[in-house]
Each structure stands twice: as C-alpha cells, then as structure tokens.
Amino acid sequence: MKFKAIIHVRPKPEIRDPQGEAVAGALRTLGLSIEGVRAGKEIVVHFDAADLTAARAAVDTMGKELLANPVIEDYSADVAAA
Amino acid sequence: MKFKAIIHVRPKPEIRDPQGEAVAGALRTLGLSIEGVRAGKEIVVHFDAADLTAARAAVDTMGKELLANPVIEDYSADVAAA
Known about the structure:
The structure is a homodimer.
Chain A: E1 2-11, H1 18-29, E2 33-48, H2 52-67, E3 73-81
Antiparallel strand pairs in A: 1-2, 1-3
C-alpha cells in the first residue's frame, strides 16, 4: 500500500532557536508586532508499507533514526493512505 | 489580541528539491521503500493583531515578504487566536 506521511520536526521548547530568532527580528522590521518565532521542518514522504501499522512504524524509524535530532528536536507525524 | 500562525513553506511541485532527494536517499539506506520526499519549512509565529482579519493580512505579509521565495516556493498558513 502507498502512504503519505507529513513529519514535523521542531526545536524542543527549552532549546534556543537562532533561526527562529532571526526570523522574528526580520519580521519586526516589516512593522509586525511579533512575540516569538520557532522555525522547524516539514518533511513530506511518500512511501510503501504493508499496512497502516507498518507505515506508522516506518515513520517512527524515519523520525528517530534520521529526521530529528532527539537531543534538541521533537517530531510528530500524520500518516495516511495516499 | 494574541494570535498563533503556523506557516508552511514548501518547494513548488515543478521545482527540484535537492534536500528532499538527499533525505530520500538516506531513508532508503534504512531499508524503507521510499517513493519521494519533499522538504519544507514550518514556522510557528506568535504575534499581536487587532482582529482575525488583521492577523490574516499580517500572515500574508510574512509569507510574501519574507518567509517564502515566490519563484520556487509556495506557502500556506493556519491562523488562530492564541
């Protein structure tokens, strides 16, 4: 079966996010009233798996083994048949 | 009023995405059956605006003026009171 996963990788709340801080500064120069910005990644993966359980396991592997650095990042994912 | 916007910035479908291709290659080395990967950004912004209409206009400004490169990227956003 074909699946589509949208994997969100975000800096952990207690970790400094220099990219987000830079974006916040740049947005303020546009005259916007910005409180804070966190910059993360969104990775869309199309893949094959036997069933939804196997697909979820594959996405956990992607997040843990490759996409997120568990020291500084959290990840979450939406998985659905494509 | 305080608002939270989640802004998704993705490479346009017709544009090559070297970062996504690199991720696809790495995921295949984990033994996964990957068809394709697109790598985008997810930017979470906390900001002030007068009302929801003003908040949506502010998010449009963020997307067009700063966060997305309209030549190669699309953006979409979810805006809600925080």
